[in-house]
Amino acid sequence: MAIQANLESVAADIPAGRKLIAVSKTQPPEKILEAFQAGQRAFGENRAQEMAKKFDMLPKAIEWHMIGHLQTNKVKYIAPFVHLIHSADTPRLLEEINRQAARANRIIRCLLQVHIAEEETKFGFSAEEITELAGSEIVTQWGNIQIEGLMGMATFTDNTAQVRREFRGLKMLFDRLASTPLPPSVKMRELSMGMSGDYKIALEEGSTMVRVGTAIFGERKL
Ligand SMILES: *Cc1c(COP(=O)(O)O)cnc(C)c1O
Questions:
Q1: Closest Cα to atom 7, ligand 1: which residue?
Q2: DSSP collapsed to 3 states, 6-58
């Protein structure tokens, strides 16, 4: 019951046309099924094998979103079914996603993760690297990848002005790229930003997809 009520209250904050990804990492399949039965279809996981296991057990109508750092040797576990990889953070990873997508005979949709936080620990490309990559020849050679936009995580802080500034910077990069000529396999359609603590700010700053875990499922135990 709590999950349904939480989902309804988060969904009420999300304008039409923006998407809610329910972050179900570490949550047992029963909890995911409860959210599914309440109407939620998009779920986010950060570990490839955990996602693959849940994919096998749960309804096939679920869209699985990879949101966490993905090691190249794990791409194979999710390539046959993953809906969108939010966390493509190196050319080497993109190359492996392309290879595994070709093996699975499909095109995998990806977002490029941009490092926008002050913290050193967060993964992602710099703005300069993104600009270079998005306009480069290499991208056109990855025939089994479609780049749909960008993803970013703000600094974990109570300073909402800083969080807003980081989201705004990412939106500016997104808009700048969207207004330049890009290869056909690169589109700036989706901007994935915002978690439980900051999704309202992210939506105000132009997020098209929010990734919300704790506000739906409660505190994670692990
Ligand atoms: C865990 C996680 C989330 C969700 O975090 P909550 O604070 O539980 O909403 C969102 N994005 C990424 C990349 C995560 O790893």
A1: 196
A2: HHHHHHCCCCCCCEEEEECCCCCHHHHHHHHHCCCCEEEECCHHHHHHHHHHC
Report the atom number in ligand 1 closest to the C-alpha of 46. Answer: 15
Which pLDDT tens digit goes with each residue over 90-112?
999 999 999 999 999 999 999 99
Q: Whose CA is closest to atom 15 on ligand 1?
A: 68
In the structure, what pLDDT confidence band is assigned to residue 121 with cuts at 50, 70 and 90? Answer: low
Q: Is 126 in the pocket of ligand 1 (CB under 6 A)?
A: no
From the CA of 199, give the closest atom in ligand 1: 9
Query: What pTM was estimated for this model as a whole?
Result: 0.97
Instruction: Kindly report the backbone phi and psi dihedral angles of residue 148, in degrees, each rounded to the nearest multiple of 5, phi listed first.
Output: -105, -10
